[in-house]
Amino acid sequence: MAVKEENTYEEKKSLSFVEQIVEQDLAEGKNGGRIQTRFPPEPNGYLHIGHAKAICMDFGVAEKYHGVCNLRFDDTNPSKEKNEYVENILNDIRWLGFQWGNIYYASEYFQKLWDFAVWMIERGDAYIDEQTSEQIAAQKGTPTTPGTPSPYRDRPVEENLRLFKLMNDPATPEGAMVLRAKLDMSNPNMHFRDPIIYRIIHTAHHRTGTTWNAYPMYDFAHGQSDYFEGVTHSICTLEFVPHRPLYDKLIDFLKEMNGETENIHDFRPRQIEFNRLNLTYTVMSKRKLHTLVDEHLVAGWDDPRMPTLCGMRRRGYSPESIRGFIDSIGYTKFDALNDMALLEASVREDLNKRACRVSAVINPVKLVITNYPEGQTEEMSCVNNPENEADGTHTITFSRNLWIEKEDFMEDAPKKFFRMTPGQEVRLKSAYIVKCTGCTKDAEGNIIEIQAEYDPDSKSGMDGANRKVKGTLHWLSADHCTKAEVRIYDRLFSVENPSADDRDFRELLNKDSIQVRRECYIENYAADKKPGEYLQFQRIGYFMADPDSTAEMPVYNKTVGLKDTWAKQNK
Ligand code: ATP
Ligand code: MG
């Protein structure tokens, strides 16, 4: 009996606090046992990994409790929104592996929201304020001192209705007036001090064109949209905690307008907040990401150094690795900074399972096997993925003239150097054991060629081939490989938490966040790989072909190294 109780407790503990709330609501029979969530992006930029955290929650809860998650574009500010963003948001959500129920746009509710605002005005619960935003802000008071009522607060209803119509007239200048809810200028919650609910914007809207000139503010659109759609759990991030009482208050108004009586079985959307995802060495604010793109500080939204989903996709992160990372950090009620190294560990763990192992030499030096006949070649068999036999094998050509990595040779090597040095044997991966016999240098003393002899009886897979050699090196046949460009990335920012730094964030960029190597070689088999195919350059790291590749020059992005070298550097 005791054991059983413990198990039940364990099960409960593994639920996120959001899931606990949802289960409680289900147990109480709220909303008729229905679960409906939404993911509400504003189409004013590209999705980043922070959004992925919200997506995993919104879609995850709906999936788990057999509900539905819809997409709602929160498109109430035409000055910043574009269809380009809508398209990319859809693409990124699909890539992450989620399927929405319906696609809604807050702009579809502009008429309903207008009617709701008119109802508020008619009841004396909203008024037109002709003060400037500065004047209104100056009257707000502080959390401990009440605000000052606007001189327009007690306008007659008829005048408010006339002016509200005027707000939607293209001739009325932006900023001339706003509509405010008449709530409570001394409420300790600042959001109750007659919040602005409508403003004038003259930019054409990407969906409704020039039909509207008056647009609802976030607080007068978000909860209302939740209500119109039948959202049961409106899950968002912690900065909306202070908005929740206003969210509930405006839902009360809506229910009253619709003549709904309060009853536990009535439909009522419930806002729940969790902590945002913040990552070290990057920024997540859309405004800052826009600046990086607009000022060409990165190559675009999908620059592989960006925290955007399209950037991570291009860099070679798998959707599974992103979901795995989000799962591992969990959901809490406290904001924190998550370590980028944890995300990279998740990427490594996932790519280990799916990446095709290939050979590439990114800092090449010639190696000549002097006792291997000129012109002779052999096809060596390579396992595509030791983690998954079903991935099969491919072959790589061996010959007399090879490329190896410069770092894999040392003329005067210390004892523990198990790579290539005169007199020492090493294995060339999937091929033979070779013994280094010397090297050739140019006038400046740079090593331009290394020589070695191979043992014909040591071919991989042959009987007795496995005598003890400590090092195994990757290599390429110089006449049977493809020249390639390799882009190696480092942290985008040089400080751990750029958002908490007083300096301009542009000054905090890591000046060495990209290194481009154009003298690299890759085996022909890998040169055919396309963006989207996960590769491991053996002994180096995970890589992915970049869309910048041409027939003459394939380009690869380094996704992540095989080990966390960053952690070592910082010790
Ligand atoms: P903006 O600065 O434009 O408001 P935003 O990052 O809030 O940017 P939205 O498009 O409004 O962008 O966000 C859509 C949803 O994603 C919201 O529910 C928001 O709470 C959530 N979200 C945004 N950033 C994060 C983050 N870093 N971690 C978790 N959720 C996030
Ligand atoms: Mg937002």
Automatic annotation (TrEMBL):
It is an enzyme of class 6 (ligase). GO terms for biological process: glutaminyl-tRNA aminoacylation. Residues 35-352 form the Glutamyl/glutaminyl-tRNA synthetase class Ib catalytic domain. InterPro entries: Gln-tRNA-synth, Gln/Glu-tRNA_Ligase, Glu/Gln-tRNA-synth, Glu/Gln-tRNA-synth_Ib_cat-dom, Glu/Gln-tRNA-synth_Ib_codon-bd, Rbsml_bL25/Gln-tRNA_synth_N, Ribosomal_bL25/Gln-tRNA_synth, Rossmann-like_a/b/a_fold. Residues 355-455 form the Glutamyl/glutaminyl-tRNA synthetase class Ib anti-codon binding domain. GO terms for cellular component: cytosol. GO terms for molecular function: ATP binding; glutamine-tRNA ligase activity. Keywords: Aminoacyl-tRNA synthetase, ATP-binding, Cytoplasm, Ligase, Nucleotide-binding, Protein biosynthesis. The keyword Disulfide bond does not apply. This is Glutamine--tRNA ligase. It comes from Hoylesella saccharolytica F0055.
